Amino acid sequence: MSKLTFAYKAIGDCEIHADVYGDPVGPPRPVIMWIHGGALIMGRRDNLTPEPRDLYLGAGYTVVSIDYRLAPETKLPAILEDVEDAFRWVRAAGPELFRADPERIALVGHSAGGYLALTAGLMASPRPRALVSFYGYGDIVGPWYSRPDPFYCRQPPVTAEEAWASVGTTTLSGAHEDRRRERFYLYCRQQGRWPNEVVGYDPDTEPEAFTRFCPVWNVTVEYPPTMLLHGDQDTDVPHQQSVKMAQALAEAGVPHEFITIPGGEHGFDAGGGPAVDRVFQRVLAFLGKHV
Predict the structure, then answer these.
(1) CATH code of 279's domain
(2) Contact 37, 111 (CB under 8 A)
(3) What is the layout of strands, in order, in the sheet containing 62-66?
(4) Is 92 within a domain?
C-alpha cells in the first residue's frame, strides 16, 4: 500500500489536502472518497482508521480521504463547495495521479461526513455512483440541532466566552486541537445554536435558507443508491435521522439499504469486533453492487 498526499484546493493561505491510499500503477480502480466527521467543527482526514481503510483497499478500491474547511470559521455553503471540488478533483486529476476510474466513485462518510456525503448526492455533478452514511443525517434544522439538546445539557455548561475562545477567525482545515474545539461544539448543542453558527442562518427567522442543505427534503429518483447505518442508542445524532432518510429514499424509488445496529451508539464501528466486521462486509457488498 502506498500513501500520497495532495493539495486538491487552496483558499488564500489555506491548502486543503487529500490522502490517497492504494496502488498508483496498474489498471484504473474504483474510488472511495472518505469524508471525516466532527460536526463540521472538528476532525481531519487521518481520522480514517486502518481497519476499514484496509478492507476497502483489499476489495480493490483506491481510498481518498479528504479534509475540508471547518466551522465556525467557514460556513456550510463553502464547506460543501470543498466536498464538490474534491469530487471534481478526483474525477479530473485522479486518472493520471493515482489511476482512478472517474466513473466509479463512491462517497463514504461518518456522522457529519455522512451528512456531507448525503448532501453531495444532491449537489455533485455527475452524481456519485453510491453513498454510504454511517450515523449521518439529512435534516440540519430540526429540533435535535436547533434546540438545546437534553443529553448535552446534562454536562457542565459551556459559556459563550469559553466557546468562542476555543475557535478562531483564520480559515483552517484538518483541525489538530479537536479536544479544544469540542467546547465550541458542546456550547452549540447546549444552546441549540449549531445551525446558526455552522450554517450561518437563523432557523427561526430564515427557515427557507435551510431547504437546499437538507437532503431528506430533496431526494428524487436521480439520487444515488444509498446505504444508511445507524445505532438505535445514538445520543449524538438521533437514529430517527436515518429512519427519515430511508423513508425519503423509499418514497422516491431510490435503491437503498438501511442497517439499524441494535444497542449501537454513535461511532458504533470504532471498536471493531465480529459484529462490526459483518457490518463492513455488507457495506462492501453494497458498494460492489453499485460501484
Answers:
(1) 3.40.50.1820
(2) yes
(3) 2-11, 14-22, 62-66, 29-35, 100-110, 130-134, 226-231, 256-261
(4) yes
For residues 227 and 200, the answer to whether their CB atoms sit within 8 Å is no
User: Could you report the per-residue pLDDT of 1-45, keeping only the tens digit for each?
Assistant: 789 999 999 999 999 999 999 988 889 999 999 999 999 999 999
What Rg, from alpha-carbon coordinates, does the chain have? 18
Q: Which domain holds residue 70?
A: 2-139+211-290
- The backbone torsions φ and ψ at residue 173, rounded to the nearest 5 degrees and listed phi first, read -135, 150
Distance, in Å, from the CA atom of 167 to the CA atom of 6, rounded to the nearest integer, reads 26
Spatial contact of 239 and 138, defined as CB atoms under 8 Å apart = no
Cell of 206: 430564515
pLDDT in tens, 167-192: 999 999 987 767 889 999 999 999 99
Q: Based on the structure, what is the number of domains in the chain?
A: 1
| pTM exceeds 0.90, yes or no | yes
Find the distance separating the first CA and the last CA of the chain, reported in whole Å: 21
For 150-208, the DSSP string reads HHHHTSPPPPHHHHHHTS-SS--BS-S-HHHHHHHHHHHHHHT-HIIIIISS-TTT-GG
| Buried b / exposed e along 69-94 (16+ C-beta atoms within 10 A) | bbbbbbbbeebbbbbbbbbebbbeeb
Calpha distance 142→7 (Å, rounded): 35
Q: What whole-number distance in Å separates Cα of residue 286 and Cα of residue 291?
A: 8
Question: What is the rounded CA–CA span in Å between residue 272 and residue 37?
Answer: 18
Query: Which amino acid is it at 271?
Result: G
